[in-house]
Amino acid sequence: MRAVQVEEFGGPEVLVVRDLPEPEVGPGQALVEVAAANVMYLDTLVRGGWGLDYFPVTPPYVPGAGVAGRVVRIGPGVDPGWEGAAVVADTGHADGTPERPTLPVDGYAERAVVPESALVRVPEEVDPRAALALLHDGPTALALERAAGFGPSTTVLVAAAAGGAGTLAVQLARRAGARVIGAARGGAKLALVRELGAQETVDYSEPDWPERVRALTGGAGVDVVLDGAGGALGAAAFGTLADGGRFVGYGSAGGSFTEVDTEEAGRRGIEVLGLFDLKQADGDRQDALRMVLEMARMGRITPHVGLALPLERAAEAHAALEGRAVLGKALLIP
């Protein structure tokens, strides 16, 4: 079986394709023939040695936290109805207990073993790559929609609007009737954000972009900020909020989560929610995933896959993510 391994902690160059033994299927598990493997920014951080207290991985290991494909073998105790099913699933459940934190491992491979409890069926009408693009970002986007509470009278700023969750959040906000301002870097990303429904866009490579956001609101500020950028960009986005607004920080594409001045937020009546305020139980997350898969089947939401590369080019996929060059999702194709 071909798979990508992280040989040692370091840059993208430590990702190497190897021939590894076929994974064994144990009780309660299923073997998935992988059609596509999810590539997340988290994968690049862990590959570099970040977050080992929470993600205790030891090289050599196979990175990747999710796959789409077809079940080709089941272990004892697994419902026979899963055989041959098209599925998406989280990987990294080494002991078959999804109650434990999921390690971002075992995804970049031709085949992956996952617990039966991790399997979610993909509707026939939904392309496996589109389904995989929804695996993590779909439930996140629905959680953002709930937390934001936007509607027809709401102006929403989506920071990192061309990212995986950002592209979905733009679409959900527009479907709710909100006015959407999408913030991203560069013409290609801004064009995508407009295509997905944002009425206005701002380029946050320009130093005066927060002033432009405020100008677009007539100086009043936005009602909601969905911050997938973090860092200095997230802090600047916070400054575009109207008094009484809501700030939802869920991403760290800028290298860290946004540090909000809690005294200022309290003084201005701004509600601040972070990533852990959006957390869902595994069962709830799978229900949310089924919901967005059905929305995709009905054409009500369209995930955007901006980069799909073979396993041999995993290093290129990581470099593109680190260079903020990916529009939407990045995937690997075995």
Automatic annotation (TrEMBL):
Highest rank taxon of the organism: Bacteria
Protein name: Alcohol dehydrogenase zinc-binding domain protein
Organism: Nocardiopsis dassonvillei (strain ATCC 23218 / DSM 43111 / CIP 107115 / JCM 7437 / KCTC 9190 / NBRC 14626 / NCTC 10488 / NRRL B-5397 / IMRU 509)
Gene Ontology terms for molecular function: oxidoreductase activity
Annotated Enoyl reductase (ER) domain residues: 10-332
